[in-house]
Amino acid sequence: MKLQQLRHFLLVVEAGGFRAAADRANRTQAALSASIKELEKSLGQRLFESGNTAILSAFGESCLPKIGQFIDTAQTLEEDLKSLAAGNKGKIRIASVPSLVTKLLPSVLAAYSQKYPDIEIVLIDDNSIGVANRLLAGEVDLALGNDARMDQADIDFTALISDPIGVVCLKSNALYQQLITPKQASSKSLRHGLKWQQLVGQPFIYNGTCRLLENTPAETLNRQARYTVENITSLFSLLRHDLGITTLPKLAFPANEPELVWIPLLAPTLTRQIGIFRLRDKSISPAAAAFYELCIQHIQDHYLL
User: What is the spatial distance between Cα 128 and Cα 130, in angstroms, rounded to a whole number?
Assistant: First the structure.
């Protein structure tokens, strides 16, 4: 029993005769009749009354709704598979570091959802090591983060944006106050940034992004840290309670923060390279591939690298 034979059966019923059905199918009447006879042979019963008419037999009457339902399902499946192949339907899973979920990804997701409204997006935030592990484990299709801890043998990295590292402290902290002049006090604009040596006398709070200080003179701050905090919410709670200072990438610092300030770190000058990752030797779905290309293009068009 073939799908085309079932379609021919429905066509004869809809057209009201074999000749009209053959014309619609762009086939000869003999070929269409042969297709129906093969179907009847495989079923072991006649679908139409004898005499080459389009009158359904009792068996044919019973089969008609079931075959119609099956063809509708097959048509829907065909359309869904073509949509999946075109990247218009499906689901994509993306892991990202929290700072990108807050600042960078929303505009990318908005552009993607506008272009592909039927794609379901599962977004998972994790630290830089976590997003890499999720990608390597096959939990997600794509990952966004920095390249510091990625295994380049297994993962392709495409740089998107360079994110500078700075110092975060209360606005009342002496580190910040010494950088502003009386005229600048109202606007809080900075004349310059800070060197790592100026931070040594301050209680230091170590967070996951402080790994970027490793193998630099500023690594001393990590070794002398008073607190170690991995959760970003806990980190900002400690900072707001004046329990210390920390270093953070600029994208990780909240916009319109009322109590804290981000100050550029000038010596050493450090940045993290933010990018999008995919497994090197594994294909991704058309929907994920569309997001991958759109993300790269959107960042290039709207952000300075």
Answer: 5
